[in-house]
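Shift notes (night). Ran glutamine--tRNA ligase while the centrifuge was going.
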Amino acid sequence: MSTVEDLTSLFSGIGLEEPKVKEILKNKKVSQSLESLIKDAPSDASWDKSSRALVHNLASSLKGVELPNQKLIVRGILNGDLKTSLQVEAAMKYIKKVGENATIEEMNKESGVGIEVTEAQVTNSVLKYLEDHKEKILAERYKLVPGIFAEIKNMAELKWADPRLFKPTIDREILKLLGPKDERDIVKKVTKKKDSKTNEKNSSSAAPKRTMFTEGFLGDLHKVGENPQAYPELMEGHLKATSGRVHTRFPPEPNGYLHIGHSKAIMVNFGYARHHNGVCYLRFDDTNPEAEAPEYFESIERVVGWLGFKPWKITYSSDYFHQLYDLAEILIKNGKAYVCHCTAEEIKRGRGIKEDGTPGGERRACVHRDSSVELTLSKFRDMKNGAFKPGEAILRMKQDLNSSSPQMWDLIAYRVLNAAHPRTGSEWKIYPTYDFTHCLVDSIENITHSLCTSEFYLSRESYEWLCDQVHVFRPAQREYGRLNITGTVLSKRKIARLVNESYVRGWDDPRLFTLEAIRRRGVPPGAILSFINTLGVTTSTTNIQVVRFESAIRKYLEDTTARLMFILDPIEVIVDNLPDSYEEMVTIPYRPGTPEFGDRTVPFTKVFYIERSDFSENSDDKEFFRLTPSQSVGLIKVPYTIAFKSMEKDKAGNILRIHVEYENEPVDGKPKKPKTYIQWVPVSTKYNSPLRVAETRIYNQLFNSENPNGDPADLNPDSEVIYNNAVIEHNLGHVIKNSPWVINSAKESEFYVEEQHGSKEVCRFQAMRVGYFTLDKDSKGDRIVLNRIVSLKDGSK
Ligand SMILES: *[C@@H]1O[C@H](CO)[C@@H](O)[C@H](O)[C@H]1NC(C)=O
Ligand SMILES: *[C@@H]1O[C@H](CO)[C@@H](O)[C@H](O)[C@H]1NC(C)=O
Ligand SMILES: *[C@@H]1O[C@H](CO)[C@@H](O)[C@H](O)[C@H]1NC(C)=O
Ligand SMILES: *[C@@H]1O[C@H](CO)[C@@H](O)[C@H](O)[C@H]1NC(C)=O
Ligand SMILES: *[C@@H]1O[C@H](CO)[C@@H](O)[C@H](O)[C@H]1NC(C)=O
Ligand SMILES: *[C@@H]1O[C@H](CO)[C@@H](O)[C@H](O)[C@H]1NC(C)=O
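Came back to this:
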């Protein structure tokens, strides 16, 4: 351990000023890295301002981690090969990747050593870029500049150019092209929100964005290699095997469908690894063969992919049954396990559970605990060979009955099961428990961060105990608070009953909160990730009402979907004063305020549909602004208003159709100004309009009560309301063809998830005034079935 004096003299020795040295010394890890980097430098090196800064930066990003071959970087900096922080970063990335196999030649190649980009070349590239994009730049002017800057910086030919060359060149050339800024370039502060968004964008290029991965529980996690070991000598092999990269795992039991709560576990494990350029396993914890079924494996894999994550490897706890068995024998040979023949009841008693089921009684070792190693070993082999029936013998760990933690009261390691395994068939008669398997497989897979939810907090002790007893690398288990969605039912058993008794359409019924259901309903995966990110990760449980989740989805869709005119409950309208062939093309933006979505056209014709609730027979209602016998109304984007003439009703008194007049005779040269504009969907064979929607499924909450317990008597009879007559403008076809329809600004988010073209659930749109919809998987050919994802407004009390 170097003293502060040693370090001060070492750091001053390379020419760092005293205040700088003091600042560096405040951070132990950075000091430690800087120390080792300086010691890697040739003793006769001459340090200058730039090399000091580069090495200090390097130390700051290493933060205590020592890379094999890091001296190649230090030497590259000092001999002038690595000149910029960009190059040092590339060199570091390379060294991290290949570790001990690094060569100077490769490193220099990876970091662009020797590639000189002159100012003239930069200017040339900038000019070419501006020429290629001239039209757009002239149209949109200065607000494009940050984007131009980013794109030019990313040009392959400029990769190794000095970044300081870009800005003056771009500024100069833009000024030549556009002239000085004028009133067209004033950024309108439309809303405060928008303003803060632009700022965010600017700062994102400078400093890393703050996300759930950079702060809170995940931000505070240890660096790879910093977790303590009972046997520190095991760390070296671990670091070699992982190349110092984060390794996590998502380890579901394949015995059910995942639900919304699991999306957090998926995002924490896969996302943390991705954020740190690490890897994440999808590991099926298949040690309970009786509960497993192939559809669960498939569903889990599908859902992980849907949320935008790709497992580094897909593994199964059963892949390791042989290794686990060998470790169990080692545990026995170390005198730390015994075969126990107690009944479940006797085991409970021994753990201090009293006859009445309450804990706190006296704890007693069972009579088998002191069996010899030889006897235990031979009985364990008998267990393996099928000499015992289920319940007759178990292998227990010899832990510490005096511990205050129940996780140390001689947990069960292996039990006899009479069940074939989906993957290993009838090979095994004994199966390891979760407590035995989990930590050891983490160790075998060299997991650097074993992230689980806080109900496993007490397991951390047994986790470490077992790794240490069999002398294997001890991964770090760390516990975060799970996501608890309230106001619905997530329990497997309760949902199974609803499915089995046909109260819902299946495990993926859009009213449920399994991930399959949420997907079918049309919720974008990116919306889920963004939502979880905003909640952040702490060690305590996050309780969220279903309605709050839905309002986050609504917000996300509001910003990211195109709009269409859609009439849920139509009445036909005939314009008496227009000819049958009348056709007036009306242009409507797909999303006002977002030019990127573009416009669409809708033919205004003699016959069209309006929403039944947009007409009232009562002319006296002063609060009703839409069509009445005495009040004209506007149709969205149609130039003139329509005025009521007459209506037709059926025998029961229902309105069949309304006759109106198009008020296209301006009064004083001006069209009439209506109180409001309503939606309309035209009838036009030429445009194949309207599209008729066979079923529009409007979902409401599944249960009546706020905190349902899953009782079918509590089901909301209106949880699914189906409309069979809805009509929609023909541009739905365009939306479907372009789906998933994603605008560029949405792709910029760290939490954007690319979805599959051709899936039904990605065909989302906003039906003006009614809600957000997507195609249900029951749609086939011309038969359109729509799911309402969420309503436009929060309908909860
Ligand atoms: C180094 O090279 C050897 C042989 O090619 C390879 O097995 C090993 O995985 C490499 N090490 C790293 C850290 O890439
Ligand atoms: C963000 O970018 C805009 C547009 O270029 C610029 O006007 C503004 O000053 C920048 N804001 C910050 C905080 O950098
Ligand atoms: C884990 O690391 C050890 C070295 O400690 C190595 O032998 C083993 O192959 C690694 N396991 C995996 C799955 O990479
Ligand atoms: C618990 O501790 C007591 C006294 O320290 C010891 O005599 C006893 O054997 C321990 N019991 C077990 C089951 O380890
Ligand atoms: C999770 O939510 C349920 C209500 O649905 C509540 O009863 C329970 O206490 C919550 N769990 C935690 C750990 O907060
Ligand atoms: C569904 O209910 C039937 C009859 O009650 C029962 O036999 C069956 O096991 C149940 N299935 C499931 C998956 O719960």
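Confidence is low (pLDDT under 50) at residues 189-198. Residues 145-146, 198-199, 202 surround 2-acetamido-2-deoxy-beta-D-glucopyranose (ligand 2) (CB under 6 Å).
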